[in-house]
Amino acid sequence: MKKNIAVLKGDGIGPEVTDQALKALKAIEEVYGHEFTYTEALIGAIAIDVTGNPFPEETFKTCQASDAILFGAIGHPKYDNDPNAPVRPEQGLLAMRKSLGLFANIRPINTYKILANSSPLRADLVDGVDFVVFRELTGGIYFGQKGRSEDRNIAFDNCSYSKEEITRISKLAFEAAQKRNKRVTLVDKANVLATSRLWREVVKEFAKNYPDVTLDFMFVDNAAMKIIQNPKFFDVVLTENMFGDILTDEASVITGSLGMLPSASVGSKTALYEPIHGSYPEAAGKNIANPNGAILSAAMLLETSFGLSEEASLIRKAVEECLNQGIVTSDIQKDSKFTTTQIGDKVAELIKTKKKELLAV
Ligand SMILES: NC(=O)C1=CN([C@@H]2O[C@H](COP(=O)(O)OP(=O)(O)OC[C@H]3O[C@@H](n4cnc5c(N)ncnc54)[C@H](O)[C@@H]3O)[C@@H](O)[C@H]2O)C=CC1
Ligand SMILES: CC(C)CC(=O)C(=O)O
Ligand SMILES: [Mg+2]
Q1: 9: exposed, middle or buried (Cβ count in 10 Å: 0-12, 13-18, 19+)
Q2: Ligand 2 atom at minimal distance to the Cα of residue 90
Q3: Any idea which positions bind substrate (predicted)?
């Protein structure tokens, strides 16, 4: 199979972890005889440095011309520590999501037996956790009008949602539930927010199209608690942009580390794959970041955009085998000395040399 992949490494640990995902993709090319072309483009703080724009037009065109997009992370302390910066890396990320129509961010949360003791939760709570969050990605408070009063004493962020925005992601969530345990939990704050009440109204009506799927509702504060208390309760979580952002960072530590979680951002035209973490600036250039979220994002890319399920499975099994062999970064095991590049090399080597054994498990 011949495909074009846009590669947006971004800032901080973005380039380091994306490079490990690329090693896995190149190993897959070699083993299966696929031909992937990789076109790099700028985004985030690095794009501001070079062009003045966190999401340059050229990057947009590269994304549009590709069959799928692999993304690292953006963000730099020089902007985090300057609340009045006129241009920010995060604006590039939001502009990319909006302009490419990436309205649904799919974040699977599964645990690995071997990592049970890396989780801050008890092993019996963690073992067997398997749920997926459908986070709305191009609406809500992150995209609403923002501002300050004339005297600058008041600031506001507007949150709005349309029926259409809610329906299109609901469709994906209910379809996913049909292939899983047939339960959708809508997480909102409908006891307070008008937007949440619209979500409830629309999703309740929409659910009638899926009589085989059970729909329940949970307030976001309760959901934040339940994710820790009883994470196995969840199957498909459907939620708006900011709630999904926060709850998935929380959920990630069930698995052992924020560095473990991949994601797919899908829309009607194209799709983008990224680890759910940020640019982790404290670790940039130190070769210590966990690249598994990025590598597993490459697996999601192969499966979702290219329909290559076996290849995706091989990447996932290679990651799991690496974990089983204790080849992990220090976020997973405190005294571990394995580096980001060593994990990437090991995953690629396993893909190239152990296909049969790994796929048989
Ligand atoms: N999608 C994106 O590009 C995102 C960008 N950001 C940006 O990233 C910058 C840093 O933000 P933070 O809040 O510190 O979030 P972060 O996700 O970069 O890091 C938070 C903490 O999670 C852990 N962590 C994250 N990724 C890891 C990895 N691969 N391996 C091991 N440990 C890992 C570290 O303990 C780190 O201190 C900011 O500029 C922020 O705006 C934040 C979240 C998402
Ligand atoms: C700039 C933020 C919205 C990025 C983030 O935290 C995320 O997408 O998970
Ligand atoms: Mg986030």
Answers
A1: buried
A2: 1
A3: 97, 107, 135, 221
- Measured CA to CA, the distance from residue 261 to residue 249 in angstroms comes to 9
The confidence score (pLDDT) of residue 47 equals: 98
In this prediction the pTM is: 0.98
Quick check: is 233 in a domain? yes
Residues recognised as catalytic = 142, 189, 221, 245, 249
354: containing domain: 1-107+260-361
Q: For 2-31, how does the pLDDT look when each residue is reduced to its tens digit (9 = 90+)?
A: 999 999 999 999 999 999 999 999 999 999
For the Cβ of 289 lying below 6 angstroms from any atom of ligand 1, the answer is yes
Tokens of 123: 């092993």
CA–CA gap between residue 66 and residue 49 (Å, rounded): 24
The answer to whether the beta carbons of residues 275 and 261 sit under 8 Å apart is: yes
Structure tokens at 321: 């085998």
Cβ of 18 less than 6 Å from ligand 1? no
Structure ipTM: 0.99
- Amino acid present at 279: S
Whether residue 97 is annotated as binding a ligand: the answer is: yes
My answer on whether 103 and 192 are in the same domain is no
Containing H/E element for 145? none
Q: How many residues are listed for the chain in this entry?
A: 361
If one counts the domains in the chain, the total is 2
Same domain, 292 and 339: yes
